[in-house]
Amino acid sequence: AQLGAIAQAVLARGLRAVLFDAPGHGAATAPRASVVEHARAIALVGETLGPVHGVVAHSVGGAATLLATRMGFSAARFALVAPPIGPARFIEGFRAQLDVEDATYAAMVARIERRYGLRFDELDARSDAERLSSPLLVVHDEGDRVVPLADGAAIASAAPHAHLRRTTGLGHTRLLRDPSVVG
User: Fold this and answer.
1) Which residues contact 83 (CB under 8 A, 6 or more apart)?
2) Is 58 helix (H, G, I), strand (E, B) or coil?
3) Are 56 and 124 in contact (CB under 8 A)?
4) Which of 19, 68, 79, 183 could form a disulfide with 43 if both were Cys (CB 3.0 to 4.6 A apart)?
5) pTM score
6) pLDDT at residue 81 above 90?
């Protein structure tokens, strides 16, 4: 539903729009919501659809889309809206808010790494952006309080064929409906 306005713009251009609820979101039956589960779902959708003309992804979906390229996903072009670099900042915030001790934090990170078969540092979207040969548009609001503009800017800087489009006053989700972004 969040990407509905963008889907309508895609349809208006005569293209097919495919939307899905990522794991842990909307009507998805999968209970977990991590960047890795998102990436696996994106790779599966891409495999099922065949050649993908373009992909638009928001927030963690943006980082997951880049991670999915390691799993065989490809698209002719990418547009990421307010993408985070990775989960480290969110987990650090969780750690600080709950005052988690170092040993508990280390055990938590180790468990996450075992579950997904990836080291924490391998979840940095910049490394996937560096390998991206398709054009990349990153749209990010200067006042985003969920994912700072610095994340989107870093991803755009890492990609060889990227453009960063900054918005003002749209925050983390309003930019998904704003005509200046959608159009």
Assistant:
1) 57, 59, 60, 61, 62, 63, 66, 125, 138, 140, 147, 151, 152, 155
2) strand
3) no
4) 68
5) 0.91
6) yes
